[in-house]
Design brief:
About 45% of the residues lie in helices and about 15% in strands. By secondary structure, it is an alpha/beta fold. The termini are close together. This is Amidohydrolase family protein.
C-alpha cells in the first residue's frame, strides 16, 4: 500500500484524488486547513491565501470558528472518500491544558480520526505541544504530527525531541523534513526512537537520500499537497532508493504500521 503521509483538504477534493491517482497512491493522511492555495488564480489571490498560512504559522488567527469551518471541510472530504483518506484532527494550542485534553477526546477520538495534526506552534514555542502529547498518551498513544519547516527553528526541533522522550508511547512526526534545519532533524529523529521524519517539500534531493539512509525505518513519504505534488514526491523517493524493502517501508509500510492499518 502506498500512503502519502501528509496532505491537506483541497477545494475541490476531487482534484486531490486525481493527483493521488496520477501518483499511484492508495491512501493519504488528510489534515484540516484554513488556507487554500489551490484556489488561487493569480499572484494577488495566492498572496491572500499565503497570508492566512503565515498568520497560522505565527500563532495568529487561532479561533474556534475557523477550526469549526476547517473541521467541517475535513469531515466532508472523509465522508466523500473514506477509502482514500485517513483523517487527522487538530486542536488550538492556546487552550488551557484540561480543554486540550477534552478537545482531543471529542474532536479526534470522538470523530474516529487516526491522529493529531498538523500542529503549528509559533516559532520558539514548540513546548506548547506538550499538553497535546500528554492527551495523545492518555488516549493510548495517538500519533502527533508537527509542522517542521520554517518558521520552525532548530531549537524547536530540539524541544520536540525532548518532549518525545517524555512521552515514549506517542509517535511524534516532524513534517517537511525539518525544512532548512533538515540535518538537525535527521540527527534528532535518528537519536529519538519514537520520532519520525516526513519527507515532503525537501529543498534538495540529497536531503531525502540522506534521511532515508540514516533512518530507513522512520522516514515517511509525503507530499504536503497542495503545497507539494504527490507525483513529484513519490518520484523523489524512488529516485534515491532501490526497489525493495527500504523503498516499500518509506512509501507506505511504515505509515501503515504507525496508523494501525497493517
Amino acid at each position: 500500500m502506498i500512503i502519502d503521509a501528509h496532505g491537506h483538504v483541497h477545494d475541490p477534493v476531487a482534484d486531490h484524488v486525481a493527483l493521488l491517482d496520477e501518483a499511484g497512491v492508495d491512501r493519504a493522511v488528510l489534515f484540516m486547513t484554513r488556507p487554500h492555495p489551490e484556489r488561487a488564480t493569480d499572484l494577488a489571490s495566492l498572496r491572500r491565501e499565503m497570508a492566512i498560512l503565515n498568520d497560522r504559522l505565527h500563532g495568529r488567527g487561532d479561533h474556534a470558528d475557523t477550526y469549526q469551518a476547517a473541521a467541517a471541510e475535513l469531515d466532508a472530504a472523509l465522508a466523500a472518500w473514506p477509502d482514500r483518506f485517513i483523517g487527522f484532527g487538530s486542536v488550538p494550542l492556546g487552550l488551557p491544558e484540561d480543554r486540550i485534553a477534552a478537545a482531543v477526546e471529542r474532536e479526534v477520538v470522538g470523530r474516529g480520526l487516526r491522529g493529531i495534526g498538523e500542529l503549528t506552534p509559533p516559532p520558539g514555542q514548540a513546548a506548547r505541544v506538550e499538553p497535546v502529547l500528554r492527551a495523545a498518551d492518555e488516549q493510548g498513544g495517538l500519533p502527533v504530527v508537527v509542522h517542521g519547516s520554517a518558521p520552525t527553528t532548530a531549537d524547536d526541533l530540539r524541544t520536540l525531541a525532548t518532549l518525545a522522550r517524555r512521552y515514549p508511547r506517542v509517535p511524534l512526526v516532524v513534517s517537511q523534513l525539518g525544512g532548512p534545519n533538515w540535518m538537525d532533524a535527521v540527527e534528532l529523529v535518528r537519536e529519538t526512537p519514537t520520532m519520525y521524519l516526513e519527507l515532503s517539500t525537501a529543498s534538495i534531493v540529497f536531503a531525502v537520500r540522506l534521511a532515508i539512509s540514516e533512518i530507513p525505518e522512520r522516514t515517511l513519504f509525503g507530499s504536503d499537497a497542495p503545497y507539494g505534488d504527490p507525483v513529484l514526491a513519490r518520484a523523489t523517493v524512488e529516485r534515491v532508493t532501490a526497489s525493495g524493502e527500504i523503498r516499500d517501508r518509506v512509501l507506505g509500510e511504515t505509515a501503515a504500521a504507525l496508523l494501525g492499518l497493517s
